[in-house]
Specification:
Length: about 425
C-alpha cells in the first residue's frame, strides 16, 4: 500500500507540472497552388488569324470557327488560367509600324469564355465579365498571359492566345505559316486547392481503417459531422500485415447495434487485383467473441459509395440490405469494440499495428507492474518520451492520453 501511495503522489505531482501533451491541431484553409491543364497541340488550325484577318492568334480550344481542341476543356478551374508561351521569329521588331511611322507595341492576351466569365479583348467592354491584362511582347522570348476568373468553372468553352501582331509586316501572303513567326505553348495552368497532408498519417499509408456505424444513439462515420470517438484507434494500412481498429464507447454502452463495419478508403481491388482481407477476431470489452464467423458477402473489396473505392468489412447491417449479421444486434458493449484483420495481396510488406503486449505494459517485458506505473510518472514529468506503441499501451481508459488516470489504472492492476 505504501508503494501505491508513493506512485500516486509522484504521478499527481507530475500531473500538476505537465503541460498539455495532446493539444488539438487546427487545420487552416487549403492554400492554392498551380495545377497543369493538359495541352496536346499544336494542331493544324492552332496558329491562325484573328477575326480581323490581320492579327496573329494561337487557338488553344476553339470550336466556334477555327476547330482546335488542343486543351483539356473540362476540370476544376479556379482564380485564373495561365498560359506560358514562347515567341520566335519577330526579329528586331516589337511594334506594329503604320505608314505614318506611328508605332503600336506588340501585345498578347487571353480571350474566350470559361464557365460564366468571358473576355473578348479591350474593344469588347460590353461583353467582357473580367478584365484580363495584356502582356507586352518586346521581341522573341517567353511570356505569360492570364485569363482571370470571377467564379470557379468546370468548362472552357473557348480559349485563344490573341495578339495584335500584324501578319502583313512579315509576309505579303497574309498567311501565318509564311510569316516566319512561331508560337510555342510551354504550359497551361490553373489554380487548385493544395492537397493537405495529414501530419498524423504515416508516409506510405494506402488506406486508413476505422470502425464506423451506429451503436445505440451514437453514429460514427470518421468524418467531420460524425468523427471517431475520443480514444478510438485507426489502422494506417501500408501493405500486407495484420491490423486492429478500436471503437472506444463513450456514451455509457449499448446492447442495440444497427450497423457496424470496418471501412478502409483507398484500399481496393481496383488498385490491387490480388487483394484479400480476412477477419482474425472481434473483441467486445476486451474479450474475444467466441465462434465469430465472417459470412460470404461480409467483405466488399470494391466499395465505392460516397467516396474513393475502398474496402468494407461488415459485421452487422440492418440498414442497406446486405443482410450481414455476423455480430448479434443485441451484443452488449460497455467500453470498447475491437476488430483484428489481415490484409494480403497488395505486393507491399506492411507494418502491423497489433500490439503484442497487455495494456499497461509500457516496459514491454510481458508483465504489468510497478515499473510500468513509474514509466507513466516519468513521462508526465517530461523525463522520458514514449513511442506510439507505448502511448497506446499506457492509454488505459482509451481517452487518447496518458496521464494520472492511466497511472491509477495501472496501480489498480498491480494491487489486484
Amino acid at each position: 500500500m505504501k508503494s501505491f501511495k508513493k506512485i500516486i503522489a509522484a504521478v499527481s505531482a507530475a500531473a500538476l507540472a505537465a503541460t498539455a501533451m495532446f493539444s488539438a491541431v487546427s487545420v487552416s484553409a487549403a492554400d492554392m497552388v498551380e495545377k497543369e491543364i493538359k495541352y496536346t497541340g499544336p494542331s493544324a488550325n492552332a496558329f491562325n488569324l484573328e477575326n480581323d484577318g490581320v492579327s496573329l492568334r494561337m487557338n488553344l480550344y476553339n470550336t466556334w470557327g477555327q476547330e482546335t481542341t488542343d486543351l483539356a476543356n473540362t476540370g476544376a478551374f479556379q482564380e485564373k488560367i495561365s498560359v506560358t508561351f514562347t515567341v520566335d521569329g519577330l526579329g528586331d521588331n516589337s511594334a506594329n509600324i503604320a505608314e505614318d511611322g506611328t508605332e503600336t507595341p506588340y501585345e498578347a492576351y487571353l480571350s474566350g469564355s470559361v464557365g460564366t466569365d468571358s473576355y473578348w479583348g479591350p474593344d469588347a467592354a460590353d461583353d467582357n465579365t473580367v478584365d484580363n491584362k495584356a502582356v507586352a511582347i518586346e521581341g522573341d522570348g517567353t511570356y505569360t498571359a492570364e485569363f482571370l476568373l470571377n467564379d470557379p468553372a468546370d468548362t472552357i468553352l473557348c480559349l485563344i492566345l490573341s495578339t495584335n501582331i500584324n501578319v502583313y509586316q512579315y509576309t505579303e501572303t497574309g498567311k501565318p505559316a509564311d510569316s516566319g513567326i512561331t508560337f510555342s505553348i510551354d504550359s497551361v495552368t490553373t489554380m487548385a486547392e493544395a492537397d493537405i497532408t495529414d501530419p498524423d498519417v504515416p508516409e506510405g499509408t494506402i488506406g486508413t481503417a476505422a470502425l464506423v456505424g451506429a451503436i445505440g444513439a451514437t453514429q460514427v462515420w470518421n468524418n467531420e459531422e460524425n468523427p471517431l470517438t475520443e480514444g478510438s484507434k485507426t489502422a494506417y494500412v501500408n501493405g500486407d500485415a495484420q491490423y486492429e481498429v478500436v471503437w472506444n464507447v463513450t456514451d455509457g454502452g449499448t446492447d442495440a447495434i444497427e450497423f457496424l463495419a470496418v471501412q478502409i478508403p483507398g484500399l481496393s481491388s481496383d488498385k490491387y487485383a490480388d487483394l484479400a482481407v480476412k477477419v482474425d477476431g472481434v473483441y467486445v470489452d476486451g474479450k474475444e467473441v467466441a465462434g465469430y464467423t465472417t459470412s460470404a458477402d461480409a467483405i466488399n473489396l470494391a466499395y465505392t459509395e460516397g467516396g474513393p473505392a475502398g474496402t468494407r468489412i461488415y459485421l452487422i447491417d440492418r440498414w442497406i440490405g446486405t443482410g450481414i449479421a455476423d455480430l448479434a444486434a443485441d451484443t452488449a458493449i460497455t467500453s470498447s469494440l475491437k476488430v483484428v484483420f489481415t490484409v494480403s495481396g497488395t505486393g507491399i510488406e506492411g507494418t502491423s499495428n497489433v500490439s503484442k503486449y497487455e495494456k499497461g505494459d509500457l516496459t514491454r517485458d510481458g508483465k504489468v507492474n510497478l515499473y510500468d506505473a513509474i514509466e507513466i510518472a516519468k513521462y508526465m514529468m517530461n523525463m522520458i518520451k514514449l513511442d506510439e506503441e507505448q502511448l497506446d499501451l499506457g492509454d488505459m481508459n482509451g481517452d487518447g492520453k496518458v496521464n494520472l488516470y492511466d497511472a491509477i489504472a495501472v496501480c489498480n492492476i498491480i494491487m489486484g
